[in-house]
Amino acid sequence: MADILNIRPDEIAFDVDGVVADTFRYFVRTAQNQYGCSFDYEDITEYDFRKVIDIEKATSEAIIQRALEDPIHCGIEPLPGAVSSLTRLARKAPLLFVTARPEPDAILAWLLHYLEEVPEEKIRLEATGTGENKPAVLKTYNVAYFVEDCLETGFLLKQAPVTPIIFEQPWNRKPHPFPTVSTWNQLCSMMAW
Question: Which domain holds residue 48?
Fold first, then answer.
């Protein structure tokens, strides 16, 4: 973590799911409570979670679809520290979120709901549809650092060149060369306030 310090607020951007939105905990909770599944959050050791947990495809697709269409009402919460950290950052520079979600409206409404102290004009969101499209979008915004939870995307970003900062999750705890944070407080300690 200590190899990146003094990141300017105007040169960093953020993934949403797994970094700002605690989407995977919603997924696990819904799978357990509504579908009787018996896996835990820590069991998701691959980003492509269907490789490592026992869940029917129709069930996982139903849960994911609800998360895509209605993240506010399905109960997706922000990760601890995300709202206060992003609110603080927005006082210094506009916030940029780049998500692999296929469409922006529902998750933008979610961001506006939780970042209620941040003026709407200070929140930019790009929905790329896939992780592979993130590097090109980040280049257009001259982003130097991107906080991401998917290691595969991290390797793509490095070629952009954008420095990925991996937000630690059970599915990205494999060896990799990137700076890693496990909390928003750690991420904030890297910022040039």
Answer: 23-69
* Helix (H), strand (E), coil (C) string for 107-118: HHHHHHHHCCCC
Q: Residue 165 corresponds to which tokens in the numbers above?
A: 């900062």
Cβ neighbours of residue 108 closer than 8 Å, sequence gap 6 or more? 123, 125
Q: What is the mean pLDDT of residues 61-82?
A: 97
Residue 18: which CATH number?
3.40.50.1000
Q: What's the residue count for the chain?
A: 193
Distance CA 62, CA 60 (A): 5
- Which residues 6+ apart lie within 8 Å of 37 measured at CB? 28, 31, 53, 54, 55, 59
Which pair of structure tokens corresponds to residue 42? 């820590």
Q: How many angstroms separate the CA atoms of 39 and 17, rounded?
A: 20
C-alpha to C-alpha distances, 79 to 52, 104, 145, 159, 167, nearest whole angstrom: 23, 19, 20, 28, 11
Going along the chain, which residue ranges are E strands? 12-14, 95-99, 123-127, 145-148, 163-167, 180-181
The pTM of this model reads: 0.95
| Number of domain units in the chain | 2
- Model pLDDT for residues 55-67, shown as the tens digit of each residue: 999 999 999 999 9
Report the run of H or E that residue 119 belongs to, with start and end.
Answer: none
